[in-house]
Amino acid sequence: MSLRDQAAEVLLGNWRGHNTIPAPGLYPHQWSWDSAFIAVGLRHLSSLRAQQELESLFGAQWADGRVPHIVFDPEAPRQGYFPGPEFWRSEEVNGPQHPDTSGIVQPPVHALAAWEVHASDPETSRRRSFLERLYPKLVAWHDYLRGRRDLGGRGLVSIVHPWESGMDNSPSWDAPLQRVEPVPPTEFQRRDLDHADASERPTDADYGRYVRLAATYRDHGYADGLQVHEFAVEDPVTNSLLAASEAALVRIAQELGEPAHPHEAEVARIRDALPLLLEDGLFHSYDVHGGDLVRGGSVAGLVPLVVPGLPQAQDLIATATGPRFRAEELGVVPSWDLTDPLFDPSRYWRGPAWFNITWLLQRGLDDHGAPELAQVLRTGMLTAANRSGFREYIDPRTCEGKGAHHFSWTAAVVLDLLATS
């Protein structure tokens, strides 16, 4: 079976009628930024399903504009995932007729995905009024982030939980999490360890901190403010993808005959604010409570390459190809600095390479005048997927597969690379 056919088999097997789960077992519901990457790949199999993927997610958008990081499948076992709908209690905010969701968010890559889905089949998109219906929802989503989440007052979005970064267990969160008292492991039951090796997952102490932060947010009615959030961090991935998605909204607005200049201005505003996070050739997170950069070696610091016209792009390319990430040599990009003692090739976001991040970086490299390196990453991702069998993430040095099997965004990235390379 060809690599394309294998990737298609993964996505079609994980389809649940109106959306795609990230993977069987460990991830039985719909995840926000997963669905965006999945839609990008799914468009090469069915533009209709790709549109439905995003429509399904935005069907669970909250009245305040936030797009929740999980939309729970009512057909999935209620106890199959923790924290589930009984923990989040979203119905207390949204009412009983609204889909059950979590109360936190994930990085805003959705407008970028929506434009790619439209561009793959404009006729079907226009016939279904796909962009007309989604555009105001995307605008409301971005308005929520820049309005409710500028907790530092510096023009940058803050995440209020490590899960909101998408890079759940990154060492970047270790220091800001130290002020959070973990919930004892006796007071909750993890479900992730039913499906994955403990050596590849967050520790019980870290998980207890995640539970504490989420419960506090819930108990404050999901209100945003520094008095609520012990963890408030300006994250380069969230802000960079907001800029990239605003650039996509420029194209969407032009397609719809709407004013594009507000989105153009927003791209420029974020691009001008991002250097607040820059130091020594890498963007870092900023701890709003601590008032300082969280210095480290996260691949998040390279993701600003997706921002159009980024002045610091050449510095990031030098960092990506240097000893810290060795992108040209490896063909994939590790999630943490290879030279740092904290690098762990197996544990969640503390070293393994992820296909969605490397996919974003190859797009950014193409946009910033490094097509040869972008091609190296495209070839590297296809080789790694073929070796590892569509795993959730891989050891960047050996391509050994880690985490969940039959992972949807890995398959989606492969389909997109095969179709567009």
TrEMBL record:
Domain Mannosylglycerate hydrolase MGH1-like glycoside hydrolase: 27-410
Segments passing through the bilayer: none
Alphabetized UniProt keyword annotations: Glycosidase, Hydrolase
MF terms in GO: Glc3Man9GlcNAc2 oligosaccharide glucosidase activity
Pfam families documented for this protein: MGH1-like_GH
GO biological process: oligosaccharide metabolic process; protein N-linked glycosylation
Gene3D superfamilies xref list: 1.50.10.10
InterPro entries: 6-hairpin_glycosidase_sf (IPR008928), 6hp_glycosidase-like_sf (IPR012341), Glycoside_hydrolase_63 (IPR004888), MGH1-like_GH (IPR054491)
Assigned protein family: Belongs to the glycosyl hydrolase 63 family.
PANTHER family per UniProt: MANNOSYL-OLIGOSACCHARIDE GLUCOSIDASE
Protein name from the UniProt record: Mannosylglycerate hydrolase MGH1-like glycoside hydrolase domain-containing protein
Species whose genome carries this gene: Saccharopolyspora rhizosphaerae
